[in-house]
Amino acid sequence: MLLEDLQVILKVAEFRSITAAATNLDMRTATASAAVKRVEASLGAELFVRTTRHLRLSTAGERYLPQCEQALKTLEQAKLNIREDSGIIDGEIRIALSSDLGRNLINPWLDEFLTQYPKVALRSSISDSNIDFYRDSVDMALRYGSPNDATMYGFKICDVPRVICASPDYVTKQGMPKDPKALMECNGLLYQLQDILQDEWVLTQDNTEYKIKLRGNRASNDGDIVRRWCVAGKGVAIKSSLDMSSDLLAGNVVNLMPDYKPKSTELWLVCPSRQSITPTVRLLRDMFREKTETILATIRSKGLI
């Protein structure tokens, strides 16, 4: 029985369709169908119940597929262990990145990584949307906020302060807000996530919490667009200090009201399973931690956050 045939079987079970499985695996439908028939012939049992419109697992399939999946994961992990012991770093990085962080910081770091490890290939997915590891065909995601799915595995990269910022030109024209009430008179550059407009900002000063509702003429579900608006002097934004680090250091934006602090966030590297934590993932984790620590230390030392 070929391992490749078993991988086809698992994809058919996942998509409940031989055609969809073949498309996902980049093969002909007839090739996938032949793989299913070979496995069923070897087992002497049908794994799927087929009708003209639907395909579902048979009783035998319901028993066999979970054990098959676990066996393939064990074999893959054994292969990774051998490669790790041999110091081999290769394969494909399939990583999901948020728009702002991915474009402006992480992709240049990944370029460095590929230069250091030339046998590694990269496939990056840039989006602020939530990631479905199976639907989106990625092996890891670098995301703000701690994972809320107990089935995922991840590494915390760092704590990330957030800043309220605007361009010097905007501050010159509109004046520097001194307190949350004055901030409410500014034009808010608003971020929208999953159709939720983040127009209510929570700030803390000396253990006192302030909730303010911003009004603004611009909103986007792309964090990088919000950053660009902010640098262009269109209004005031609340952003990750990592996202704004280059602009803070270059003087393109200033940190408004530093005594009033937005709630900080966390940066995590998340994987769908323990088996997906490969030597490459660990190397990326270490690189991300080192790079972000350096940036945060630099902007702190200059009093920018």
The end-to-end span amounts to: 59 Å
Whole-number radius of gyration?
Answer: 24 Å
Outline the low-pLDDT stretches. Answer: none
Strand content: 25-35%
| Backbone structural class | alpha+beta
Strands side by side in the biggest sheet: 4-3-5-16-6
Which outline best applies? Answer: elongated
E-strand count: 16
Main sheet characteristics: 5 strands, mixed
Q: Give the integer mean of the pLDDT values.
A: 90
The number of helical elements comes to: 10
Roughly what percent helix?
40-55%
Helix-strand topology string: HHHEEHEHEEEEHHEEEEEHEHEEEH
Can you tell me about this structure?
This protein is α+β, with helices and mostly antiparallel strands and 305 residues long. Helix content is 42%, strand content 27%. The protein has ten helices and 16 strands. A five-stranded mixed beta sheet has the order 4-3-5-16-6, with helices on one face. A hairpin with a 2-residue loop joins strand 10 (200-205) and strand 11 (208-213). It is elongated and about 80 Å long.
